[in-house]
Every structure is written in C-alpha cells, then in structure tokens.
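hey can u run this one w/ NAP bound, need the structure tokens asap thx
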Amino acid sequence: MTLTSTNICLTEYPKGLPTEETFQTTTTDVVPAGDGEITVKNHWMSVDPYMRGRMTGIKTYIEPFQIGEPLEGGAVGEVTHSGHKDFKVGDWVMTMLGWRSLFTAKVEDMQKVMLQKIDPNMLPPQAFLGVAGMPGLTAYAGLYKVAELQPGETVLVSGAAGAVGSTVCQLAKADGATVIGIAGTDAKCKWLLDHGCDSAINYKTSDNMTKAIRNAAPGGIDVYFENVGGIMLEAALNNMKIFGRMAVCGMISAYNDETPVPGPSNLVQIVGKSLKVQGFIVSNYSKYALEYFAKLGPLMASGQLVQQETVLEGLDKAPEAFLRLFSGDKQGKMLVKIT
Ligand SMILES: NC(=O)c1ccc[n+]([C@@H]2O[C@H](COP(=O)([O-])OP(=O)(O)OC[C@H]3O[C@@H](n4cnc5c(N)ncnc54)[C@H](OP(=O)(O)O)[C@@H]3O)[C@@H](O)[C@H]2O)c1
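ok here u go:
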C-alpha cells in the first residue's frame, strides 16, 4: 500500500517580504511505517516568525530550508501506522515535520529533533503549538530566566498580542507585575487590556512611542520583553529604569529587510542606565519545560492564562498563514488546521 502526502515547499529564497509565489504545493508517495518507524497524519501545524530566517539559504543557529523540499516546523498529528514498540496507532504526537499532510519517519531520527507524545484530552491539541509549546516556553524562559522578573516590577512587551507576547503579558500579570503591551490594532489592544495588561499602546496610531510608554509607566520600565526591534527598542530604551533588564527574544520588524537598517540612536543609554541586555534562543532553555508546565497548569485551569488563536483551514492556506505573521492580520497564535 502506498499513501500520498501533500506538501508545501519553497520555490526560492525570497528577497524582502515573501509572497504566495515563494511557495508551491507538491505531492509525494509515502510508504507506511516499517521497522522502527511511525506514519503520522498531521492535524495541526504552526507558522512561526523564525521560519523566515530559514528561508535565506544561510545557516544561522539553525539549518536553512532546502528549495523544493517540504518545509519543516511544529505540527501535531495522529499515528496511523507503527513499526515501533513505544507508539501505537491512535497516539498523538508533536514533531517538527509540519507543512505536509502525512509522513513516515524513523522514531530515532525524530527524537534527535523533536518527538513528543501529547494527550489531546488534557488540552486542545493545537495548544501544544502555542501556549503549551515552543512559544509558551519562550515567554517563560525570557521573562524568568533571562530578565529575572522580580515581584512588583513593571514589564513592557512589544509584539504583545502575538503567541509569545500574549503569554508573557499573562504570566507577568499573574505574578503581580504592572504590564504594558504594544500591539498593532485597537482590537489587539482591547484583548490585552482584557487579559492582564494594565495599559496597551497601538504603535500604528501613536505618533510618539517614547511619550506613550512614559504615560503608561511614569516610573519607568524594569523589564522589556523585545519581540519587534526598530522604533520599539528605541522608545523602550528611553523609558528603562536604572538596572533594567531587556530579554531580546526577536526583532520581527527586521526579518524582511533587504538591507540592514540603522540601529537605535540611543544605545548609549545601556551604559548610563546600567542595563542588562540579553538575547536568547528557546531551544537552550528546554530543561525548564517541566517547571513551566507546573506553572502553566493552574494558570490555565483558573482562566488566568488563555490561548487566543487564529486558525486557517487547509494545508494550502499555510503560506497565507505565514505571510500574515508579517502583516499582523491575525490575533494570537497563528495556526493551520490541516484536516
Ligand atoms: N528567541 C526565541 O527562541 C524565539 C522563539 C519564538 C519566537 N521568537 C520571536 O518572538 C517574536 C514573536 O513571535 P510569535 O511567534 O509570538 O509571533 P506573533 O507575535 O504571534 O506574530 C508576529 C506579530 O508581530 C507583529 N509584527 C510583524 N511585523 C511587524 C513590524 N514590522 N513591526 C512591528 N510589529 C510587527 C504583528 O503584530 P502587530 O499587529 O502587533 O504588529 C504580528 O502579529 C518574533 O520576533 C519571533 O521571532 C523568538
């Protein structure tokens, strides 16, 4: 018996903002699992900003995607065939083999990257791609292990209504912080105010971000959780308190730049304010996953931490879902429901 998988592949390494033409759909034959393998039917896949960095053909902290090959990324699905004693038909798993409807792979190979059984009765399966997955752990690691949030502090978050940012805001609020979120629409700002933010700033309608942050936090910012870069970083620097900390998680505003943009004009404030500025990559913090889940469980049960999501249906919608990360045309975690 041969099965068929539908896949999304790259046609090129895009210059600037990718378009629908950057992607193409292919089909491949899939042989059901043999010895040591499992076959998985994907139900959900994630699109994430870091994938843009894998579309450049250049190795960074992670290998680039290969043109013509199915893209990769977080996905959850159901085992349909198993040749491995630890997996049975009907098990749900999280892997890094998204952007395809179906695959057979060696368990041993997948375990080197990511292979985790999940319980879809514990949480909706797509939550393992968001608040209970990589974006959630990123929020936790940045806030507690990098920025070392202390009780009673004031936290500023850019990209606050996204997958990582919305988790940061809710975690910080649950710990009693004063939280200021920055997002790109009034609807996103309203959601933030309803879910843990004391203030929310729409950067697209604010004519002076430095002033807007100062109005929201007249005493200054202890912790800045950076997801965006550019003007946000400059405005945040202007408002940091002495001995403030910046957890630099991402700078999405620069991911599609064809030529480097000038840095903030006020970096010298790092010296005068004795700031600690630290970048981080979540994969270096995976040892904190269980610690994070122990915190997450009660917060989700009490409704203090929720996953907001935008879902596009059908694998063919994956390129659109990815592009909408950069237009901001989505709320919360962007997901593709494959089946
Ligand atoms: N370091 C790590 O290990 C790690 C892990 C995961 C994610 N990240 C980073 O964390 C950040 C957030 O990721 P996420 O998965 O939570 O994505 P997301 O926030 O759910 O989606 C991206 C959001 O960024 C905003 N945005 C896009 N282009 C922008 C621009 N030019 N200027 C300002 N805002 C822009 C948009 O929201 P608005 O409507 O508000 O503009 C968009 O909705 C990204 O920088 C990502 O690379 C880092």
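Residues 48-50, 135, 138, 159, 161-165, 183-185, 188, 227-228, 249-250, 252-253, 280-282, 325-326, 328, 330, 334 surround NAP (CB under 6 Å). anyway lmk if its weird
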